């Protein structure tokens, strides 16, 4: 599930929920380097795997997140093999990549307390790249097959928009494209995940072979639950969102 509030208490509550992984979002949410650092600390004591999405496929941003101690990284909007290779290079130190060396200052290396960190850092990092455009679907085999890409994560929202079906993640053309990506990744032996908040859709993708699925978000659950509670006790309320907020 997604952790989007930027609040460590919410992240800790979700970490103890029983889910396998917690996806801390740095692209569309309020999270900052500081809030992500705190959330990584508070969830460390729970049997859940924190995964963090960076805002963009940017070498400097990726470096900052890795220095922070992020080990499971999602890079959004990867449309082709060249962009996938760019993300791979960003998580590797020279000569295999271009990650800047600042381990003495970084939580990721525990301030150089981890012996041999520089030589084996990339072995501790899982890199997932997002397939979320029509171009990416066309190039999914090349993206998934890029050396250093550990898995792909499909984003149906942006994919639907790029296919001319804005806001229609369950449009037949979109679900067909998602299933194509799942099949392709599995044929290559590459782990594949997808975002799916509707239960029927999530189960459909599980049946299609998805290895991992993000099935909800903290902010969405809070919004829907608070609306349901208000409707229960204030049935005459309009529920309208103010024009200015």
Plain-language structure description:
This protein has helices spanning 8-15, 33-43, 59-68, 81-91, 117-120, 134-138, 140-144, 156-162, 172-188, 199-208, 218-233, and strands at residues 2-3, 21-25, 49-53, 72-75, 126-131, 151-154, 192-195, 212-214. It has 245 residues and is of the alpha/beta class. It has a domain at 54-216: TIM Barrel (Alpha-Beta Barrel), CATH 3.20.20.60. An eight-stranded parallel beta sheet has the order 1-2-3-4-5-6-7-8. The longest helix is centred in the last third of the chain and has 17 residues, at 172-188.
Quickly count the helices.
11
Strand content: 5-15%
Order of helices and strands: EHEHEHEHHEHHEHHEHEH
Biggest sheet strand order reads 1-2-3-4-5-6-7-8
Q: In terms of structural class, how would the helical and strand content be classed?
A: alpha/beta
CATH superfamily of the domain at 54-216, by name, is Phosphoenolpyruvate-binding domains
Low-confidence stretches: none
Number of strands: 8
The largest pleated sheet is described as:
8 strands, parallel
Q: Describe the oligomeric state of these chains in a short phrase.
A: single chain
Proper CATH architecture of the domain at 54-216? Alpha-Beta Barrel
């Amino acid at each position: 599930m997604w952790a989007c509030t930027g609040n460590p208490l919410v992240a800790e509550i979700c970490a103890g929920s029983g889910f396998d992984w917690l996806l801390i979002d740095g692209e569309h949410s309020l999270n900052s380097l500081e809030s992500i650092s705190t959330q990584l600390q508070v969830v460390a004591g729970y049997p859940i795997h924190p995964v963090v999405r960076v805002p963009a496929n940017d070498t400097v941003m990726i470096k900052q997140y890795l220095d922070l101690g992020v080990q499971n990284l999602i890079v959004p909007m990867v449309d082709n093999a060249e962009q996938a290779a760019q993300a791979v290079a960003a998580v590797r130190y020279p000569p295999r990549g271009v990650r800047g060396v600042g381990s003495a200052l970084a939580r990721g290396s525990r301030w150089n307390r981890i012996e041999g960190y520089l030589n084996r850092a990339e072995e501790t990092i899982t890199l997932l790249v997002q397939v979320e455009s029509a171009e990416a679907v066309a190039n999914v085999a090349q993206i998934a097959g890029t050396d250093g890409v550990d898995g792909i994560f499909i984003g149906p929202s942006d994919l639907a928009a790029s296919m001319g079906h804005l806001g229609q993640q369950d449009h037949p053309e979109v679900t067909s494209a998602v299933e194509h990506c799942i099949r392709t990744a599995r044929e290559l032996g590459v782990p594949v995940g997808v975002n799916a908040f509707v239960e029927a859709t999530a189960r459909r993708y599980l049946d299609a072979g998805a290895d991992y699925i993000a099935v909800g978000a903290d902010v969405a659950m809070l919004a829907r639950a608070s609306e349901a509670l208000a409707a229960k006790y204030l049935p005459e309320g309009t529920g309208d969102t103010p024009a200015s907020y």
